[in-house]
Amino acid sequence: MQTTLVLMLLMVFTPNLVSATTQIPDSIVIDGNSRALLTEPEPFVRYLDDSGQRAKLQRYLNGGICSASWRGFRAYWQIADAKLVLIQLLANPCDPQPKEVPLTVFFPNHSGPALAGWFSGGLLVPLGRRFWDLYLFEHYLLITVERGIVINRREFTGRPLFRGRPQ
């Protein structure tokens, strides 16, 4: 009992002593600007899980997945004509020369960008300057997507989301 209490106190009072590697985020082009995509779960991870096609990605991974990319890939997205499209997929993004995964591996009938028709949910895109925390930004853009189609865009400040943290 006393050991459990000590461990709980340590976890409560020493959160800043523990750190984890920041993951390489996906990238999204919106209104001609390339930005990070902070969405969890990531749209392509959801696609791999829901479609059962994760095994197709394995042959492009070199086995040396780095701590900054546990997924083993980085997806590049674009909002074009109010649609979310996957434009590029790179395996092993920590490598100096990551391997491009042809989109035809997953979408045989697409020679170019693939509409993310499998994805419905919110895309969180940071805007403005970054505060002291790695993922705390001045403003955010929340893009609501329904089966690959953008149905709403809303910008908001990050301050109310992170009460109690210095800004």
Describe this structure in words.
This protein has 167 residues and is an alpha+beta fold. It has one domain. It is built from 3 helices and 9 strands; from the N terminus they run αββααβββββββ. Strands 1, 2, 3, 4, 5 and 6 form a 6-stranded mixed β-sheet that branches. It has a 3-stranded antiparallel β-sheet with strand order 7-8-9, with no helix packed on it. β8 and β9 (149-157) form a beta hairpin. The longest helix is centred in the first third of the chain and has 12 residues, at 2-13. The protein starts with a helix and ends in a 10-residue tail after the last strand. The model is unreliable at 1-18 and 163-167 (pLDDT under 50).
- Terminal CA distance reads 38 Å
Helix content: 10-25%
How would a crystallographer describe the biggest sheet? 6 strands, mixed
Compressed to H and E, one letter per element, the order equals HEEHHEEEEEEE
Question: Care to count the β-strands?
Answer: 9
Global shape? globular
Q: Structural class of the helices, strands and pairings?
A: alpha+beta
- Tally of helical runs: 3
Q: Round the mean pLDDT to the nearest integer and report it.
A: 79
Q: What gyration radius follows from the Cα positions, in whole Å?
A: 19 Å
Strand content: 35-45%
Q: Which regions contain 5 or more consecutive residues with pLDDT less than 50? A: 1-18, 163-167
Question: What is the domain total for the residues?
Answer: 1
